[in-house]
């Protein structure tokens, strides 16, 4: 997006705090008046001194004191209000980003590293906050101060004032010259930071893996590359900023010198008072300094706008819902799911189908096992069933209606999910189980925990259900996390359960507790399970064998085994696996 468009969008966020910005503008105007009064004050003191007007001194001291008090007050309010405005705008943008991120299509999450999204919430947000406070006010105050100083200068000595104002166009040109380059470097920097944060997130969340595999040196080397990229862009930014600063300094000093030489000349000729010359010097500062600051402010604004653009990309990305959906209320029943000629492509290209012509029907209460080799399309089928992606061809209907007719939230209310790796959120065990049904009371929560074989271990924890589980459940064992996730699914009590069986074996006792919990969860439910266990497939009402995105065999265990096809191969392989596991354990 063009930086102008980005700026106007940022302005909308700022517009919510009109009073605050009105206060800031008043403070700014008072500050400028005080600055100018210092020049006037200088001229008064000098003229009184030159004319030996000693009796004016008490008044001059009083004026000096008033200027001092005014300056300290405006300085306080200026800093305080700018900070307040910046914090409020940042907070609103952060909340808005979250509000939109929660509604993004799964496709966005599958394509984008979460670290990159995190950078938009952190470093980009920080840059935008700066823009809404210090930078925008600086961009307003400096030209206005320069303009007021110029008008005052015109009053003192107009030919001198006109010579001095030449600094303006030269500085604006400098700003333009370096601003675009700063904006491009700013965007590159934020992207590099996004990549660095993504990498950090992967590595710091996998401490056990890098310790065991001895990857410390490799990771340190790779991170050096990310860090060096960031440092190089920052250095290059420094160069551009330095060059912009140097050019503006040269212009400022040259203008200053010419004006002073001329002012001195006019005093010597008797056409300018000494007091007026002192006021002139002070006013020159107010004219030249703002122009010297403008290029740097302008480039910081460009950099902040590059950050804002990255945030607005998240806000503008296609969403699943127009508003945040109402909390889920699981459906109580259904009769049939009909998957009819479903085809799907992640890329939208019909030549790259991840699923081809998938057809099957499930009746309430049945268990369907989905088996097949890696990359066969099992998880993709789950994603479609859960409404995370829409089929490219064909339909998925529940009781004769597809998700378009039912509405996405309501469609998802038919489902509960137990993923392969249990995901728990930061918070207490209670919070996590109640995610299944926030309206459940303690009795229902305890009953769910008991069914999930989780109650006893939870009660042994120091704070029972109120125990904080730590980041991603890090303070719990794998089996404990799974049982909490199962308790959550039990409390949800949705009629269709999608279960991705864990491939990683737990120890015997833990495995038994988890399996037992899962069988209780499945009672009375329709279950579609990506199955890795023989016991699950043997008892399924329907087995779908998936290879290369197609259902290559379909039926019940004995019939498929007798057919001697792909299912039999998979079954034999799994049988050998489980026999080996039993041998290792015994
Ligand atoms: N987000 C994605 N974008 C593009 N292609 C994808 C995406 N996710 C999966 N695929 C591709 O779709 C195909 C099916 O993958 P899927 O994860 O559904 O297989 P799977 O049967 O669940 O495999 P596994 O048993 O190994 O988990 C694979 O070729 C995979 O590379």
Automatic annotation (TrEMBL):
Keyword Ubl conjugation: no
Gene3D superfamilies attached to this UniProt entry: ABC transporter type 1, transmembrane domain (1.20.1560.10), P-loop containing nucleotide triphosphate hydrolases (3.40.50.300)
Membrane topology according to the record: Multi-pass membrane protein
One GO cellular component term: plasma membrane
Keywords annotated in UniProt: ATP-binding, Membrane, Nucleotide-binding, Transmembrane, Transmembrane helix
InterPro entries (UniProt xref): AAA+_ATPase (IPR003593), ABC1_TM_dom (IPR011527), ABC1_TM_sf (IPR036640), ABC_transporter-like_ATP-bd (IPR003439), ABC_transporter-like_CS (IPR017871), P-loop_NTPase (IPR027417), Type_1_exporter (IPR039421)
Residues spanning the membrane: 20-42, 62-81, 160-179, 246-268, 274-298
GO molecular function: ABC-type oligopeptide transporter activity; ATP binding; ATP hydrolysis activity
Domain ABC transporter: 337-573
Subcellular location field: Cell membrane
Domain (ABC transmembrane type-1): residue spans on this chain: 22-303
The family this protein is said to belong to: Belongs to the ABC transporter superfamily.
Protein name: ABC transporter ATP-binding protein
């Amino acid at each position: 997006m063009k930086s102008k468009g980005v700026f106007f969008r940022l302005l909308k966020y700022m517009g919510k705090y009109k009073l605050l910005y009105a206060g800031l503008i008043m403070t700014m105007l008072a500050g400028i008046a005080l600055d100018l009064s210092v020049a006037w004050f200088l001229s008064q003191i000098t003229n009184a001194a030159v004319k030996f007007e000693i009796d004016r001194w008490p008044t001059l001291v009083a004026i000096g004191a008033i200027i001092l008090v005014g300056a300290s007050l405006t300085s306080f309010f200026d800093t305080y209000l700018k900070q307040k405005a910046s914090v409020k705008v940042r907070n609103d943008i952060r909340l808005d980003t979250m509000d939109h991120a929660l509604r993004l299509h799964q496709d966005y999450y599958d394509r984008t590293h979460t670290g990159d999204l995190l950078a938009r919430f952190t470093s980009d947000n920080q840059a935008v906050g700066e823009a809404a406070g210090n930078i925008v006010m600086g961009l307003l105050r400096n030209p206005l101060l320069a303009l007021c100083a110029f008008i005052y200068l015109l009053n003192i000595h107009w030919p001198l004032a006109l010579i001095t104002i030449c600094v303006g166009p030269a500085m604006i040109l400098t700003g333009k010259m370096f601003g675009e380059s700063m904006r491009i470097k700013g965007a590159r920097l934020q992207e590099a930071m996004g990549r660095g944060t993504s990498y950090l997130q992967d590595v710091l969340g996998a401490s056990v893996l890098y310790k065991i595999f001895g990857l410390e040196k490799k990771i340190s080397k790779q991170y050096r590359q990310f860090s060096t990229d960031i440092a190089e862009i920052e250095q290059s930014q420094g160069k551009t900023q330095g060059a912009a600063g140097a050019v503006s300094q040269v212009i400022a000093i040259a203008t200053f010198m010419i004006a002073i030489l001329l002012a001195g000349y006019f005093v010597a000729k008797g056409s300018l008072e000494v007091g007026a010359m002192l006021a002139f010097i002070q006013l020159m500062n107010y004219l030249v300094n703002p122009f010297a600051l403008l290029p740097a402010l302008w480039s910081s604004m460009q950099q902040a706008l590059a950050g804002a653009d990255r945030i607005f990309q998240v806000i503008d990305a296609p969403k699943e819902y127009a508003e945040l959906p109402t909390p889920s209320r699981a459906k109580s029943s259904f009769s049939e799911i009909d998957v009819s000629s479903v085809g799907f492509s992640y890329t939208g290209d019909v030549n790259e189908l991840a699923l081809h012509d998938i057809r099957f029907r499930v009746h309430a209460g049945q268990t369907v096992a989905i088996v097949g080799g890696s990359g066969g399309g099992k998880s993709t089928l789950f994603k479609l069933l859960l409404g995370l992606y829409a089929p490219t061809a064909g339909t998925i209907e529940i009781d004769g209606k597809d998700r378009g007719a039912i509405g996405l939230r309501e469609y998802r209310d038919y489902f509960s999910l137990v993923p392969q790796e249990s995901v728990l959120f930061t918070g207490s065990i209670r919070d996590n189980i109640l995610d299944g049904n926030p309206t459940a009371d303690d009795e229902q929560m305890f009953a769910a925990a008991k069914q999930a074989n989780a109650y006893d271990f939870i009660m042994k924890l120091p704070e029972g259900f109120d125990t904080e589980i730590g980041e991603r459940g890090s303070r719990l064992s794998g089996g404990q996390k799974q049982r909490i996730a199962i308790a959550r699914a039990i409390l949800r009590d949705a009629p269709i359960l999608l279960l991705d069986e864990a491939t990683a074996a737990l120890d015997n006792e833990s495995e038994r507790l988890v399996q037992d919990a899962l069988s209780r969860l499945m009672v009375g439910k329709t279950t579609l399970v990506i199955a890795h266990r023989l016991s699950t497939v043997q008892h399924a009402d329907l087995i779908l064998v998936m290879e290369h995105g197609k259902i290559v065999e379909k039926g019940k265990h004995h019939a498929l085994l007798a057919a001697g096809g792909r299912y039999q191969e998979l079954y034999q392989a799994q049988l050998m696996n489980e026999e080996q596991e039993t041998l290792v354990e015994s």
